[in-house]
Amino acid sequence: MKLQTATVIAGSEISAGDGLSGAMRCVIVLPDGTRRAAILKRGPVGEIAAEAFAALVLSAWGLPVPEPFLVDETTGPAFASSDVGYPNLKKRLALDSLPNGPAKDAATRIAVQLAIQLPTTPLAAVVDEAIDNRDRNLGNILWDGQAEAWIDHALALGEHPIDYPDRNKLCDMAQMVGDHDRVSRAAVGQALAVGSAPLVSASDAMPANLRHKDYAAYVAARLSNLAIRLLDRFPKPADLLTNANQQP
């Protein structure tokens, strides 16, 4: 996967209508004149850099992510990704339209079960741990009924707020639906296969104005004990036995 620079066609932007990032649907033009439907995100340079670097590395590791683009604007760089054309799990189950209560809780649990059963979820849990992505949620998992795509990594790689909880939310979701044993085994196996080679090529692909942090070193340090990090996100057999023996 390459990191191409694109231009937004004036007047093509409309609100993507989801999330807090102010994402916009638009049409972009690539250097060869090709037009693409895309999702455009503006923000601090660190978040733009994190999106771009993460897209390159995640793709190299085999996680399905939309093709990334950089957009040069007078206010600074922006990030765009190819619009895959299908909704996130939150929209697919219309969670935002449901009032708080049992019906919404049940629908949310179904959405979480879908997320955890996706073929690439164990790898996504590994990737989130590797890049320190604490912001995984149902709104950034796209699914068309068959294929999935993983988006929104602006708050990974240390770009999260200082008080952001240190969590791997996919591991939390797996525990929520009682599928943590399968997911933990699969994730640890995937962790042993994730290598550092893509970090160098991703760094080389980043333009100079987005190299304000050494993301490659940041991730490489986390790869050194990645499997242990993942195991620590799940309950140990002793923990389960202790909980089972506790009185209500």
Strands of the biggest beta sheet: in what spatial order?
A: 1-3-4-6-5
Radius of gyration: 19 Å
The arrangement of helices and strands along the chain is: EEEEHEEHHHEEHHHHHH
* Relative helix content: 40-55%
- What is the residue-averaged pLDDT? 91
CATH topology of the largest domain: Phosphatidylinositol 3-kinase Catalytic Subunit, Chain A, Domain 5
What is the beta-strand fraction? 15-25%
Distance between the termini: 53 Å
CATH architecture of the largest domain: Orthogonal Bundle
Short synopsis of the structure:
Helices cover 40% and strands 16% of the residues. It has 248 residues and is an alpha+beta fold.
What do you see in this structure?
This protein is an alpha+beta fold. The chain has two domains: 4-82, Phosphorylase Kinase, domain 1 (2-Layer Sandwich), CATH 3.30.200; 89-245, Phosphatidylinositol 3-kinase Catalytic Subunit, Chain A, Domain 5 (Orthogonal Bundle). 40% of the residues lie in helices and 16% in strands. It has a five-stranded mixed barrel. The protein has a two-stranded antiparallel ribbon with strand order 7-8. Strand 2 and strand 3 (24-29) form a beta hairpin. Helix 5 (169-176) runs antiparallel to helix 6. The longest helix has 16 residues, at 45-60. The radius of gyration is 19 Å and the shape is globular. It starts with a strand and ends with a helix. Mean pLDDT is 91; it is low at 239-248.
